[in-house]
Specification:
Strand order of the largest sheet: 4-6-7-13-11-12
Largest sheet: 6 strands, mixed
Low-confidence stretches: 222-250
Radius of gyration: 19 Å
Number of strands: 13
Helix content: 25-40%
Number of helices: 6
Mean pLDDT: 88
Number of domains: 1
Bound molecules: zinc ion
Strand content: 15-25%
CATH architecture: 2-Layer Sandwich
Shape: globular
Structural class: alpha+beta
């Protein structure tokens, strides 16, 4: 186990805790999306906090007046958190998309705004998905070795937009290949068309207690009560247990 007071991610993203995490503070370039401001779930591994600060700074340098829009990370000591299945061990963060208005000026909303593959939003017709700034964020995260990026969940149509933007800019092939690997729409659960869910890997030296991947639902949740055998000698799990085993969302 980790030594006392040493920052550590213990367990899995969906069954874990955070030791000695750091707080991500609001700054002139990092804002908390108001819908998430009522609860202080902005703790994480120091490497995640520093990495977000560096990425926000890089986007801001290339595109003045840019602010990174942050939602939930983890609780101070990790563990279960609201409606999230993961976000438990200080390695996950939700980040809202960079957006512009119709004229191309940065736009900031009270909550995460969903976008379709055309980069427009039926929920906020004036908003546009900002390919340039969103790609710059992704590239900053991918090329930051101390982050050890593991996954970025985002919907398939937005993933395509981002990879096309990278191609347009002639981004080195290895970065585009890495992005294609990291950017994924989850196979189950919400498609992530209104935010990036970013997950970093285990920090070096923490392999003994930090679990890289989420646990399967059957290991993350208490085991379902065994179903009684029916008259055919087979078993059918109760509806509640079947639901629990169904990996609806791990994010
Ligand atoms: Zn998330």
């Amino acid at each position: 186990m980790p030594s006392q007071n040493a920052p550590a991610s213990v367990g899995a993203p969906n069954a874990g805790v955070l030791h000695a995490g750091e707080h991500l503070d609001e700054t002139s370039i990092i804002r908390v999306v108001p819908a998430f401001a009522g609860r202080d779930y902005r703790w994480g591994l120091p490497s995640l906090v520093r990495g977000l600060e560096r990425a926000a700074s890089l986007v801001n340098k290339r595109f003045p007046d840019s602010m990174l829009s942050v939602g939930d990370m983890s609780r101070k000591s990790g563990g279960e958190i609201g409606h999230h299945k993961s976000h438990q061990s200080g390695r996950d963060v939700d980040v809202g998309f960079y957006m512009t208005d119709r004229e191309g000026s940065p736009l900031y909303a009270q909550r995460f705004v969903p976008f379709d593959g055309d980069g427009v939003s039926s929920a906020m017709p004036s908003a546009r998905f900002d390919d340039a700034r969103n790609w710059t964020l992704i590239e900053a995260l991918i090329t930051d070795p101390s982050l050890r990026m593991q996954r970025v969940f985002v919907s398939a149509p937005l993933r395509s937009r981002l990879l096309k933007e990278a191609e347009r800019r002639n981004v080195p092939l290895w970065i585009r290949l890495r992005a294609a690997q990291l950017l994924q729409q989850p196979k189950t659960g919400v498609p992530h068309d209104n935010h990036f869910h970013i997950r970093i890997g285990c920090p070096p030296g923490q392999e003994a207690y930090c679990e890289v991947s989420p646990r399967t639902p059957s290991r993350a949740a208490p085991p379902p009560t065994p179903a009684p055998r029916n008259r055919y000698g087979t078993t059918q799990a109760p509806a509640a247990a079947r639901k629990r085993l169904n990996p609806a969302s791990q994010y």
